[in-house]
Amino acid sequence: MKLELIDVIIIVGYLVLTIAPGFYFSKKASKDLQAYFLGSKTIPWWILGISNASGMFDITGTMWLVSMCFVYGLKSAWLPWIWPTFNQIFLMVYLSVWLRRSNVMTGAEWLEKRFGNGKGAELSQLVVVIFALVSVVGFIAYTFKGIGKFSQTFLPWDLAPDTYALILIGFTSLYVIKGGMYSVVITELIQFVIMTIASVAVGVIAMNLVSPEMLAEHIPEGWGNVFFGSHLDLDWTGIINDVNNKISEDGFSWFSFFVMMMIFKGVLVSMAGPVPNYDMQRILATKTAKDAAKMSGLVSLVMYFPRYMLVTGLTILAIVFLGPKINTETSFDFEMILPYSINNFIPVGFLGLLLAGLIAAFMSTYAATVNAAPVYFVNDIYKKYIKPDGSRKLYVRASYIASLVIIVLGISFGFVIDSINSVTQWVFGALFGGYTAANLLKWYWWRFNGFGYFCGMMAGLVASLLLPFLFPDVQPLYAFPFILITSLIVAIGGSLLTKSDNEDTLIDFYKNVRPWGWWGPVKQLTMQRYPDFKPNDNAGRDTFNIVIGVVWQFTLVVMPIYLVVRELWPMLIAFSIFAVTSVILKKNWLDKLEND
């Protein structure tokens, strides 16, 4: 595709704009590790929330969502639960508050507050550092594969997708490494504004070009229904035959079973808390626990409506106008629907803005991921064991080197994976399955100790890494229960076969974080030592708010879909549910947040 001069000017101008904050904030960020990785905990919660939403508005995930919406229609609104998207509701309701009360810099440092300073605690910190680095390498590979495929369609040189990915990753790394979190957050704020404008405009363009009657002629029966039975019951025969093969390859035919598995996995993963990535970093960077909760709630509120206007707009344009072409190709790559749609239907001038917005989506996710990872090595390994008496500048320089090493590893992994879907399924299905058991127990069971955490995490990590090699044809989500059970048995066994943690450590953790769950003996000891202490009895209220919050979040997904396909009554019903659930959350969650 040949870009017009105005499109090139817009894209180049945007790229220059993104680099500037990195150099502007470099002096401020290099003050110390907390400034570099957490912005000295001075950034307002609403900026952190928009930054977090921007980091989740990634181009690779958007390409995947467009391909899923094309194939599965409105039922695709359920598929992001594989990540799961509703983990933000668990964070919003109570987990962000618990995490921020710990007042630490990293997930590994949090484990010291939970398990103390013994051998078990050291092993638990080591394994979470390993997991953090493995997961970040996986995320970099995920973004690498997506931006390469996307760029090949639009950039003017005839290069391989991986070569384009190398160029853009190198460019983005400049401002990430130089400016730290200050740079990342401010840049993501700019990026989110660009992405939102571009996304809404694409939805409007699609609404003007595709009427409901035109769409109805090019989709199978059931495509426009968000609800489902035991089977998917979508038959593309005679419309786009290759889509049936895609459904079979994905393994989603038993759709109700697949959704139940996503809910089962999603609830457990969400209760385990955030993995050690940029989501956790944003929570720890807030000023107070209350701000952390509001920040997590803002993510859902601002992200889904514009993103799904973009996803649905590009999808219906592709179905109506590219469907015949797709039907004639022997092997069509459905992950390329997003760039194909842009290539054919977005006008000159606006194309530059949209491409800048989508490049921004890539850069924001990549930047947030890279900025969140090095702190685990520098703070929890290098500073603690190798150079405990180093200067602040030495630790910041070590962060630069750690960032480069992680980037190289992620790129190397990106070269060997085949598709976006394969790495998406592995990261969110298998890898997160290995993370769940140990991190679930750490919040809710007092007897769980550092040795149990280490054993459970290692068992889950090894199982998830071996899965693609030993069982390459198994859908990672279906392997989740086996990975979970394996790591759960090992984690509980490791705890019961070793001593419980120090009493003072448990009391201090329980008193400061105030979790609910199976904390009976520690609760009694805490109340004996601190007679004025008030335990957390809000488990019932939190559970109710989570159910309401998940419904609230789901309406934010389906409303823009109904709007773009111009289904007025379903959209109004979704909006009514959104309004009612918003009022309930205001009264039963937001108004009752404590000021720590």
TrEMBL record:
GO terms for molecular function: L-proline transmembrane transporter activity; proline:sodium symporter activity. It comes from the Bacteria. Keywords: Cell membrane, Ion transport, Membrane, Sodium, Sodium transport, Symport, Transmembrane, Transmembrane helix, Transport. It is a multi-pass membrane protein. The chain crosses the membrane at residues 6-25, 45-66, 78-99, 120-144, 164-185, 192-210, 252-275, 296-324, 344-377, 398-417, 423-444, 451-471, 477-497, 543-562, 568-585. The keyword Transmembrane helix applies. Its main location: membrane. It is found in: Cell membrane. GO terms for biological process: proline transport. The keyword tRNA processing does not apply. InterPro entries: Na/Glc_symporter_sf (IPR038377), Na/solute_symporter (IPR001734), Sodium:Solute_Symporter (IPR050277). One of its GO terms (cellular component) is plasma membrane. It catalyses: L-proline(in) + Na(+)(in) = L-proline(out) + Na(+)(out). Coiled coil: none annotated. Belongs to the sodium:solute symporter (SSF) (TC 2.A.21) family. This is Na+:solute symporter. It comes from Fulvivirga marina.
